[in-house]
Design a protein that fits this description.
Helices cover 25% and strands 17% of the residues. It is built from eight helices and ten strands. Strand 4, helix 3 and strand 5 form a beta-alpha-beta unit. The protein is elongated and about 60 Å long.
Amino acid sequence: MTKPPMRNTPNRGDYTRRSSPAQTANSGWIWGRHAVLAALQNSKRKVIEIRVTRNAVKETPEGLAKRLYEPREIDQALPEGAVHQGFALKCSALESEHINAVVDPTHGALLVLDQITDPHNVGAIFRSAAAFGIRAIIMQDRKAPPLFGTVCKSAVGAAERVPHIQVTNIADTLKSFRKAGRHVLGLAGEGEASLADAIAGFDGKGHGPGLVLVMGSEDKGLRPRVASECDQLVRIPMMDVIESLNVSNAAAIALYEASKWRPARGKAPIEDVAE
């Protein structure tokens, strides 16, 4: 398939709030009921410290909390404004899965985040990825927030359920996927084909399990070299009254479209169902 040309149209901003890229840490705090309980159930997380209130301790594993805390004492350990619901956990970082585990096209659909740094967006994307059965999320090791804090709170436990993979170079990673037989679609406002048509039309089977979806950063979209390593740039059709979607909303739509095809289960496209 002919590779798309380098982008020559202005980039579109589609973020609500930017945050500075966070450095990868060996440990950090997670807060919020769902996020903390999910982390406690994840054997890959090592518990360093737990702070829970008298009400919250009823939902935590027996004997884990050595003492109970007042809400204000939990506030002191967390960033200003963190809504903890009586649950806070300091734990080890999650290890990145190796890229070789997902290169094979039969290993499930993948989602690649090209320098998406806002922790709210990344957390929401993890939640959608869990809902729609994505095999793994791939992020750049230098420009992605660590899986603690706001990411985990926004993911509502999904950061513990969807494997993540850190790579040094997104473009080179996409090239290796294509060489292995995966089909790579990049989401971009200048894409000529619609997302739905591209997913359904490549081989008449929704690309099988080898689909890779690539989402660009909140303000600049896909970087030129990353875009050039996609098999096709695609767009989400929208009314002209709005210029762009928030990246986490766009990811949810893309993952829903991909979920209409369930090749790994040998099923035909599912019907659209309005909630």
